[in-house]
Amino acid sequence: MKNTFKKWTGLGLTAALVGSTALVACSGENGEAGEAPVEDTASPTPFAGEGEMGEGEGEGGEGEGGEGEGGEGEGGEAGHDMTTLSVPHRLAFMSGHVQAGLALYRAGEPEMAAPHLLHPVSETHQAERAGLDELGFQPEIFESVSQALEEGRPASEIEPQLRAAEENMAMMGEKAGGDPSDIIRFLMDTVVDEYTVAITDGAVSDAGEYQDAWGFVIVARDHAASLPADISADVISEIDTLLALWPGTAPVPPAEPAPVGQVTAQTSVIMLKLPRD
User: Alpha-carbon distance 196 to 11, whole Å?
Assistant: First the structure.
């Protein structure tokens, strides 16, 4: 991850935005282009993972074969074909990356944050953003955040831009609509896929996937507020239990992460509480 960030700072924001496979993060870096398309369903099939399918550089950072320290390097957008995902699902997916990136930036981890925050701006993730302009997407906000990251500015200096990014994502989410139960199921399935890839032999082996999974839990919690009043509070409580399996307020990989089975079991509890069609 450190090497990746240095490359960005050396080549400038423009280079970061054109989507070179060696520089960008999360899917697309030997990810989106090489993933096997999966139809948009409530239960995505398990995938090889973001960061594990020969991501490019092999260092373990974002976009590099297996994501070690802090970047995402997914080998295929959690197994999803962005051209077949519905707009609400794609927006939820991108929102998870943005949430992870903003939290890491605020936690003083800009190198870990940077790859996640490329999703709204890089050419590599363009398919992820298809149709978002009609919802009021403001790319210039995210470009300013990426520029600040490149310049090495602390999050405290650009807090207004970070809040603006959050507000833009929230506004698009409201306009995109979608069934909150369906979106939460999609996110819970994706959490399981991501977290399964992130943990090997009881340790975080793919930091980007670990961080992505956290971001998707955050987004699921937001959607739970739109559930029917008689179940919303209960679902939010269970999502908070799931979120507590990531220590702290940002998904910085710990020495002893929660077991995959524990995360998987709690996602099942959440999905059982959701209404069925």
Answer: 34
| Token pair for 217 | 């839990």
200: helix, coil or strand?
Answer: strand
Structure-token pair, residue 171: 């506004």
In terms of residues, how long is the chain? 277
**3-state DSSP assignment of residue 203:** strand
Average pLDDT of the chain? 79
> Which backbone phi and psi does 184 adopt, to 5 degrees?
-65, -40
3-state secondary structure (DSSP) of residue 199: strand
Q: How far apart are the first and last CA of the chain?
A: 43
Cβ neighbour number for residue 269 with a 10 Å cutoff: 14
The C-alpha angle 96, 219, 229, rounded to 5 degrees, equals 170
Amino acid at 2: K
Alpha-carbon torsion, ordered 104, 135, 221, 178, to 10 deg: -150
Average the pLDDT over each of 84-88, 97-101, 125-129, 192-196 and give the range with the smallest value: 125-129
pLDDT tens figures, 42-60: 444 333 334 333 333 333 3
* Amino acid found at 197: V
Residue 268: pLDDT above 70?
yes
**Residues 144, 149, 153, 157: is their CA dihedral positive or negative?**
positive
In degrees and rounded to multiples of 5, residue 51 shows phi and psi of: 110, -10
230 contact partners, CB below 8 Å, separation of at least 6: none
Whole-number pLDDT of residue 50: 40
Where do we find the tokens 């054109």? 18
